[in-house]
Amino acid sequence: MNINQLKYFIEFARFCNFSKTASQLGISQPALSLQIQKLEDEFEYQLVDRTKKPLSLTPEGELFFEKALKIVQQIEDLNNLSLEIEDQVEGKLKVGIIPTLSPYLVPLFIENLNRNFPKLFLDITELKTEEIIGKLNYNELDVGILSTPVQAKNIGFVSLFYEEFYLYVSDKHELYKKEKIDLKSLSFNELWYLREGNCFQNQVNSICQLPDEGELDSSFRYISYSIESLKRIVENQGGMTFIPELATMNVPSDYEDMIKTFIEPKPVREVSAAYLKTSGLKKLASILINEIIDCVPIKMRAEKQGQLIDPKLRL
Fold this sequence. Notes:
By secondary structure, the protein is an alpha/beta fold. It is 38% helix and 23% strand. The strands form three sheets. Strands 3, 4, 5, 7, 8, 9, 10, 11, 12, 13 and 14 form an eleven-stranded mixed sheet that branches. The protein has a two-stranded antiparallel ribbon with strand order 1-2. It has a two-stranded parallel ribbon with strand order 6-15. Helix 1 packs across helix 3 and helix 2 (18-25) crosses helix 3. The two termini are 31 Å apart.
């Protein structure tokens, strides 16, 4: 057994397909099959159930995968140990961040981070929560920034800050004249919302207890992946949409009166950093976490009084 064989098997476990895995690894399919066969011969049990279509791991293969993943992660951690113990901060940090947070949070911390740690290269990708958790498990990310609570095996979380939900209301709407909004007064047919499968939208659904799409009475629906797109729709077409607290910070003064707070208990979401427990919270990830906490308004760092909305993700 060698480390490359373990890496090959881990990659195969992602796809359970020899052709796709070989293409991903840049090797031939027979070479991949041979290396996995060598592992099976050495340990004297089957890792892959080749009788099923599509292929799958055997129960022994599932256990082997978990152990192999930990071994590979620990070896990579040893290779990066010099970066962890040196005083100088340098290296690459792979970060996944949910799309409803990225355009508002990243601009807050990126300038200070670049100035304070010029040799730290940040590789940021916008991903859904499920994708962040999956890539953390395969060591393809060092840290994820997402909304919690989330139940995910082998994943640890560090709370960063809390932000309220606000309602963004058109000046043509009757609710525009109100200072605070009662959730019970909302009409679902006038609410623009994000694409299903987005954790922010899951939280909005929980807040409003939205009915099924077929129960809504509307001649036009606009479903978007972008909160900024929904804001433009509200400004130009009317209606209303939910926005997180950080999204209120870049609203032009001409539109500030469109931002409405809710009556108590106010809906709140928790934003956290996620990491793989077996690797631990790495030095560069800790530096990023501290920079994020320092950049957000002080009032958002403490847990707010209100209703913490669960994104209802069990991964």
